[in-house]
Design goal:
Layout (H helix, E strand, L loop, with lengths): L2 E2 L4 E6 L3 E7 L9 E8 L4 E10 L6 E10 L3 E7 L6 E6 L4 E7 L4 E8 L9 E6 L6 E5 L3 E8 L2 E9 L6 E6 L4 E6 L4 E5 L8 E2 L13 E7 L2 E9 L4 E5 L7 E4 L12 E6 L15 E5 L3 E5 L7 E5 L4 E6 L6 E6 L3 E6 L2
Parallel strand pairs: 1-26
Antiparallel strand pairs: 2-29, 3-4, 4-5, 5-6, 7-8, 8-9, 9-10, 11-12, 12-13, 13-14, 15-16, 16-17, 17-18, 19-20, 20-21, 21-22, 23-24, 24-25, 25-26, 27-28, 28-29
Main location: nucleus
Keywords: Nucleus, Repeat, WD repeat
GO cellular component, one term: nuclear pore outer ring
Length: 347
């Protein structure tokens, strides 16, 4: 059984196209609220990036389209970081390309930036990217088993390959832990921790088998706490959410799924993210509350040692992703399989 969040405001915004990804944009002024999302139109087989503004001036929030940027291939994932007063948006595609564009909310535009479309970059779809907030360096992980690092230098993008699995492995998630370290995950529930100061391969490798009786699975999402880079929280197949601590690598902490008595979800956990807004019921725990969404249509907060997760949404369709506003962590956005954005505001 799951508890419910009291006094939760939920606002829904149907969209005319399929939503592949969405993120909060860093604000330009104190009261600015902007969302960037990638959309796919199956009728025209076209993809685009949009910036929408969130207006809170009326009794009910409203979303307004500000700008659109067309993409030549379908966008698979987004990441953003502040860059002076114009945030940088990184967008990767199912064709293996990477694009950096500039969001200008004042001018209500998305300015062309720089792209990497070389066949030597990724040979298949890029499933995860993450921008380093201080340098805008981008780590990308792909279906082809490649892990690349990219950054803007002058008027071009330079990149290098950290690892090339040559198609024998497939990566689905990547997340920075520090300016030099990042984690990746993919098939087999494996998680790797990399350090650029120690080239040649991952410096730590998780056990490939987390769930008793299961020999296969996929890591769909990773998150690393900014002040506890040694703890990686993982979401994957079978409703599984667990934490991997680099100090005790063979003892994962199961948060839900994986044979727990009362699983929150049974399908794929598409995303996990530390929830800096929720107060831990057990302050002594090393793992803060974690938000997750699943193919079962569940959006919830889970925490080790707690019998009941806190359910925020229960939908008749998949919740494919969400993002917690870094500046206002009480607010979050999520996108549903049935072409809808939901904005949740916690008291």
């Amino acid at each position: 059984m799951a508890g419910s969040a009291p006094n939760l405001q939920i606002h829904r915004f149907p969209q005319p196209k399929y939503i592949d990804a969405l993120k909060w944009l860093p604000p330009i002024a104190a009261f600015d609220r902007f969302i960037v999302l990638s959309l796919f139109d199956p009728s025209s087989d076209s993809s685009s990036i949009e910036i929408q503004s969130l207006s809170l001036s009326t009794h009910s929030p409203e979303l307004h389209l500000l700008s659109t940027w067309p993409s030549h291939s379908r966008i698979s994932c987004l990441s953003v970081c502040p860059f002076f007063q114009k945030p940088i948006i990184a967008a990767a595609s199912l064709s293996g390309s990477l694009h950096f564009v500039v969001a200008d909310a004042i001018e209500a535009s998305i300015d062309d930036g720089f792209s990497v479309e070389d066949k030597g970059f990724h040979r298949a779809g890029v499933f995860s990217i993450d921008l380093q907030s201080s340098t805008c360096e981008c780590v990308s992980a792909g279906e082809d088993g490649r892990i690349n690092l990219s950054k803007i230098e002058g008027s071009r993008v330079v990149y290098g390959t950290v690892f090339d699995g040559k198609g024998l492995v497939s990566y689905t998630s990547a997340r920075w832990a520090s300016p030099w370290e990042f984690a990746t995950g993919g098939l087999g529930f494996g998680v790797q921790f990399w350090d650029q100061r120690k080239p040649g391969g991952p410096v730590s490798q998780s056990p490939a088998k987390w769930i008793e009786g299961s020999s296969s699975g996929i890591v769909h999402s990773l998150d690393i706490h900014p002040s506890r880079k040694h703890i990686c929280v993982v979401g994957g197949s079978g409703g599984t959410v667990f934490a991997w601590d680099l100090r005790w690598q063979k003892q994962p902490v199961m948060l839900c799924g994986g044979g727990t008595a009362d699983p929150m979800a049974e399908g794929e956990v598409w995303k996990v993210q530390y929830d800096h807004y929720s107060q831990s019921a057990n302050p002594s725990t090393q793992i803060p509350p974690v938000m997750m969404c699943s193919d079962d249509g569940i959006l919830a907060i889970v925490e080790p040692g707690e019998e009941e997760p806190i359910e925020l949404l229960a939908e008749p369709c998949a919740i494919n992703g969400f993002d917690i506003d870094p500046q206002n962590p009480s607010d979050l956005i999520c996108h549903l399989e049935w072409e809808e954005i939901a904005i949740l505001m916690r008291p």
